[in-house]
Amino acid sequence: MEAATFETVYRQKYEVFCIAAYAILGNKEDAKDVVINLFADIWEKREYYQIEDMESYMWRAVKNRCFNHLSKRALQETREQDYQASLLNYVLPEAFAAEVKEVLVNAVNEMPPQRLQVFTSIYLDEQKYHETASSMGISINSVKTHMKLALKHLRIRLSENF
């Protein structure tokens, strides 16, 4: 196959391949990345000269790369879950844990009321930023600012004591 045929397949089928990849991956950006990386790899390696039926090859390659991507994503999620589980299993000495808890409680109680409400609704009530903003009648940017200041305050208090 010639470079012109490769370019024609790219121009005519790129979006179709992206839609197919999206159907498998469920993420538009990942789908585009898989397809564009496939085209780039073929172009860089000059493999298009060896491919007789480019469209069939691309369908198979998109499917395979999507499945590879899903496998990598699952492996990464498993590793993250294992890491988080190991953190949960890590136990601080009781005296140190009590001291940390006391410092955190004091630091949280020092926060202004609105910042405290934002912090507790996001961390304790597990609300999303937009949910907190809506329930409090403030903008999402205000929620972000309150969270930034709350976390900064906690970091300062913890660094002062430990």
TrEMBL record:
Which InterPro entries does this UniProt record tie to the protein? Answer: RNA_pol_sigma-70-like, RNA_pol_sigma-70_dom, RNA_pol_sigma70_r4_t2, RNA_pol_sigma_r2, RNA_pol_sigma_r3/r4-like, WH-like_DNA-bd_sf
Output the superkingdom of the source species. Answer: Bacteria
Q: Which UniProt keywords apply?
A: Sigma factor, Transcription, Transcription regulation
Q: Where is the RNA polymerase sigma factor 70 region 4 type domain?
A: 103-154
Q: PANTHER family attached here?
A: RNA POLYMERASE ECF-TYPE SIGMA FACTO, RNA POLYMERASE SIGMA-70 FACTOR ECF SUBFAMILY
Q: According to its UniProt record, which protein family does this protein belong to?
A: Belongs to the sigma-70 factor family. ECF subfamily.
Protein's name according to its UniProt entry: Sigma-70 family RNA polymerase sigma factor
Species name for this entry? Chitinophaga horti
